Amino acid sequence: MSVARVCSALLLWLVAWSAGANAQALQPLAIVTASGRHDFQIELADNDASRGQGLMYRRSLAPDRGMLFDFKRVEPVAMWMQNTYVPLDMFFIRPDGTIARIAQNTEPLSTRTIPSGEPVLAVLELVAGSAARLGIRPGDRVEHPIFKAR
């Protein structure tokens, strides 16, 4: 086998392994609003590495997908959009699952910080326009196991 073939095979294996290592299982999450229940499939970012990576470098996000950042403790947090190409709505969530604040249509690739405004347990990121499209407002409730366990 030639060196070029070995290198090509190794590169293909590395790409396939990397894609599998970065893939996360989707979990159900719902937001209950005055207009009804809205179901999503989310990735859970619950450690420093996954929270640091977030949705960076992705070029698209389906309307029913998102990422839930579990900070494991209640404190003021700030998010940003560095290396994030998809505009997002960010939902800052209290430990009881109620939405404290919504930052709508965040600016892709921006390093401007987006504060929670109060101590929160988690942040949910959905594609920009989700809050307006579904009528999601502060005070609405997010249903996910991280909010039941506290």
Q: Write down the overall geometry.
A: globular
What is the number of E strands?
A: 9
User: What topology, given as strand order, has the largest sheet?
Assistant: 6-5-8-3-2-1-9
Mean pLDDT: 88
Q: Catalogue the unreliable spans.
A: 3-22
Write the H/E string, N to C.
HEEHEEEEEEHEH
CATH topology: Jelly Rolls
Rounded to the nearest angstrom, the distance between the terminal CA atoms is 57 Å
Kindly give the count of domains.
Answer: 1
The radius of gyration over CA amounts to 17 Å
- CATH architecture level-2 label: Sandwich
In short:
Helix content is 23%, strand content 36%.
Describe this entry's structure for a reader.
There is one protein chain. The chain is an alpha+beta fold and 150 residues long. The protein has one domain (25-148): Sandwich (Jelly Rolls), CATH 2.60.120.1140. Helices cover 23% and strands 36% of the residues. It contains four helices and nine strands. The chain has helices at residues 3-22, 48-53, 130-134, 145-148; strands at 27-33, 36-45, 65-75, 78-79, 88-93, 99-103, 114-115, 120-127, 141-143. The strands form two sheets. The chain has a seven-stranded mixed sheet with strand order 6-5-8-3-2-1-9. A two-stranded antiparallel sheet has the order 4-7. The longest helix has 20 residues, at 3-22. It starts with a helix and ends with a helix.
Topology:
Elements: H1 3-22, E1 27-33, E2 36-45, H2 48-53, E3 65-75, E4 78-79, E5 88-93, E6 99-103, E7 114-115, E8 120-127, H3 130-134, E9 141-143, H4 145-148
Parallel strand pairs: 2-3
Antiparallel strand pairs: 1-2, 1-9, 3-8, 4-7, 5-6, 5-8
